[in-house]
C-alpha cells in the first residue's frame, strides 16, 4: 500500500515518492504573529500536523519546518498601537501560538525559523536572483521580474497573460511591470530595518519561505503545504524565486487545505465573526476542535458553528465512552472464551481500513468512520457475558493507536487537583533550575487541559479555564 497525495500542481492524486527513502521533507507556511491565531489558522496547523503524524506512523522520518513571519506591516502597526517594539509583539504571539496549537494536539516543528533571524540568508538569496537577472533594485526596493520566470502560473493554473490583465502598479511602487513582486522593501522613516546592499529595509513576505526552506530542507523538498488562500500569489512566487535560483524543482507535492466559514459566512473582521482559538478553548475542549476539523476532508471547505461543534461532541463522547467501558471491563475479564481469534482478526481489520482511508490523500473523515465502527464493535463485544482480557486489550490498543495518529486523546480531559498541584510544583522547580523548555512544556500541557496558570509575586495560581 502506498500513500497518495492530491497535488495542487498536477490537480490529481499522485503516489507519494519521497526524495530519500523513508524520509519526508515538509515545509508548512506559518502564521504572521501580530495577533492570536483564529480558527482559520488552526485548520492548517491541525491538518498538516496530522499528515506528519500519519507519515511517522507509517514509518517515515519527517523533517517538519514551519516559519514565523515576525516582521511585516501588520506587526509594525500592532507594535505602534501597543506602544512596544516589533520583537516584543512577535514574541508575545509566538508564545501564544505555541500554547494554542499545543492545546490542539499539534507537535512543535523540528524548526520554527523566524524572518528576523534569517535576514542574512534572505539577502544572499536576493543577491543571487539579481546576479541571475531575475530581480532588480529600484529606489531602495528590490523586485522579482515575474515575466522572466517561464513557469509562472503553473501552480495556480493561470497564464501570464491572464494574470497581466488583472494586475496594476499601485501608487508608491517602483516596479517596472505590474506582475513584479517585492523581495526587499526600503524602510520608511521610523520603521524597523536591516542594512542591506540596497540600503536600509526589510524582506518582502514571499522570499522568507524560499530562503528558509532551502536552508533547512535543501533545494528540493517533498511536500510544501499551506492554506488554499496561499496558493496564489504566495506559493506561486515561492516557486518563481526558488526555481529561478536553483534550477531545480522546489517542491514535488503541493498540499492546500480548504477554507473555513463561520456560520456559513466568510470569516472577516468587518463581519465581526472572527473566532480566536485562544477564546474558544476557554469554553470547549481543544480536542473537540481537533476532532471537528478532522471530521471533514482537509481539501473540503468546513463550516464552523457552535451548533456543529456540539453535534460533533456527541460523536467524540461516544468514542470515549466505549474506551472507558473497555477499560472498566478489563478488571473483570478472564482469558477463557472460545471466540478470541475471531475477534482479534476483526480488530486487526480496523487497522487495515484506517490505513486505507488515510493512504487515500489523508482522508481523516473516513478514518474517523473507521473509529466509529471500532467503537460499535467494542460495544457489541461488551454485551457478552464472558469477555477475554486479550480481546479487551486489543480493542484498547487499537483505540489508543488510531486516536494517537490523529493527535487525539481518549482520556477524559480532567486533571485532579492534586495532579495539577504536582505539575505546578514540577514547573516551579524547572524554573529554579532555569530549565525554561520544561517549564514551558508543563504550562502548555496544563493549558491543553484547560488549566490556566498565573504567575504572581505570591506564587503560581491556577484556575480551570
Ligand atoms: Zn510561505
UniProtKB/TrEMBL annotation:
<feature type="modified residue" description="Phosphoserine">
    <location>
        <position position="270"/>
    </location>
</feature>
<keyword id="KW-0030">Aminoacyl-tRNA synthetase</keyword>
<feature type="short sequence motif" description="'HIGH' region">
    <location>
        <begin position="31"/>
        <end position="41"/>
    </location>
</feature>
<dbReference type="InterPro" id="IPR015803">
    <property type="entry name" value="Cys-tRNA-ligase"/>
</dbReference>
<feature type="binding site">
    <location>
        <position position="234"/>
    </location>
    <ligand>
        <name>Zn(2+)</name>
    </ligand>
</feature>
<dbReference type="InterPro" id="IPR024909">
    <property type="entry name" value="Cys-tRNA/MSH_ligase"/>
</dbReference>
<keyword id="KW-0648">Protein biosynthesis</keyword>
<feature type="binding site">
    <location>
        <position position="29"/>
    </location>
    <ligand>
        <name>Zn(2+)</name>
    </ligand>
</feature>
<keyword id="KW-0436">Ligase</keyword>
<comment type="similarity">
    <text>Belongs to the class-I aminoacyl-tRNA synthetase family.</text>
</comment>
<keyword id="KW-0597">Phosphoprotein</keyword>
<feature type="binding site">
    <location>
        <position position="209"/>
    </location>
    <ligand>
        <name>Zn(2+)</name>
    </ligand>
</feature>
<keyword id="KW-0862">Zinc</keyword>
<feature type="binding site">
    <location>
        <position position="269"/>
    </location>
    <ligand>
        <name>ATP</name>
    </ligand>
</feature>
<dbReference type="Pfam" id="PF23493">
    <property type="entry name" value="CysS_C"/>
</dbReference>
<dbReference type="GO" id="GO:0004817">
    <property type="term" value="F:cysteine-tRNA ligase activity"/>
</dbReference>
<protein>
    <recommendedName>
        <fullName>Cysteine--tRNA ligase</fullName>
        <ecNumber>6.1.1.16</ecNumber>
    </recommendedName>
</protein>
<keyword id="KW-0963">Cytoplasm</keyword>
<dbReference type="InterPro" id="IPR032678">
    <property type="entry name" value="tRNA-synt_1_cat_dom"/>
</dbReference>
<dbReference type="InterPro" id="IPR014729">
    <property type="entry name" value="Rossmann-like_a/b/a_fold"/>
</dbReference>
<keyword id="KW-0479">Metal-binding</keyword>
<dbReference type="Pfam" id="PF09190">
    <property type="entry name" value="DALR_2"/>
</dbReference>
<dbReference type="Pfam" id="PF01406">
    <property type="entry name" value="tRNA-synt_1e"/>
</dbReference>
<feature type="binding site">
    <location>
        <position position="238"/>
    </location>
    <ligand>
        <name>Zn(2+)</name>
    </ligand>
</feature>
<feature type="short sequence motif" description="'KMSKS' region">
    <location>
        <begin position="266"/>
        <end position="270"/>
    </location>
</feature>
<keyword id="KW-0547">Nucleotide-binding</keyword>
<dbReference type="InterPro" id="IPR056411">
    <property type="entry name" value="CysS_C"/>
</dbReference>
<dbReference type="InterPro" id="IPR009080">
    <property type="entry name" value="tRNAsynth_Ia_anticodon-bd"/>
</dbReference>
<comment type="subunit">
    <text>Monomer.</text>
</comment>
<dbReference type="InterPro" id="IPR015273">
    <property type="entry name" value="Cys-tRNA-synt_Ia_DALR"/>
</dbReference>
<feature type="domain" description="Cysteinyl-tRNA synthetase class Ia DALR">
    <location>
        <begin position="353"/>
        <end position="416"/>
    </location>
</feature>
<keyword id="KW-0067">ATP-binding</keyword>
